[in-house]
Design a protein that fits this description.
- The structure is a single chain.
- This protein is globular.
- It starts with a helix and ends with a helix.
- 70% of the residues lie in helices and 0% in strands.
- It is built from seven helices and no strands.
- The protein has 166 residues and is mainly α.
């Protein structure tokens, strides 16, 4: 239990630092920004308490909002993503799966894991950029931001997963 908590805290700190110091300054083609902090939300195991997931999501969103100057945008979108994650992950599990199973390429298989992270990242980006722009006057730019950030975040997470598996 203590090992899991230390692992979560280390992941929290590393993702916050990487996001605020490096990734927030990357804007590919003026619209695609990698949102790597969502990786922590995607990695909660099956038996993790739902209130714990929401608490971690809120704290992570609060820290990212503070360093990114996006008041409440990250917190709100992460809370919705964190609320959906346990139920969505449950769709990919078999009835006889272990309770402490974590979402990963090794446990779900590549195709299921790719679909799992793609849907949750898309939902997060959709909420994030909708709350950030808060208008639909520049619809093409909004769609570019959602699509580009989703694709860039998926590529980064798959890269991290491939490194972790080796």
């Amino acid at each position: 239990m203590a090992k899991d908590l230390l692992n979560l805290i280390a992941t929290f700190v590393i993702l916050c630092l990487v996001q605020s110091l490096v990734l927030n300054h990357i804007h590919l083609f003026g619209c695609a920004t990698p949102l790597l902090y969502i990786y922590m939300v995607l990695q909660f195991r099956h038996d993790y308490p739902k209130w714990g997931i929401l608490l971690w999501c809120f704290l992570l969103g609060l820290v990212i909002d503070t360093f990114s100057n996006t008041p409440g945008v990250t917190s709100a979108s992460l809370l919705v993503t964190g609320a959906i994650q346990p139920y969505f992950f449950n769709l990919f599990l078999q009835k006889d799966s272990a309770e402490d199973i974590r979402p990963a390429v090794a446990t779900l298989g590549f195709a299921k894991y790719l679909f799992y992270i793609s849907v949750l990242i898309f939902i997060h980006c959709l909420l994030f950029f909708t709350l950030e722009t808060f208008n639909f006057f520049n619809l093409l730019q909004w769609i570019k931001c959602i699509g580009g950030s989703t694709l860039l975040t998926i590529i980064l997470i798959l890269t991290i997963e491939s490194v972790r598996n080796k």
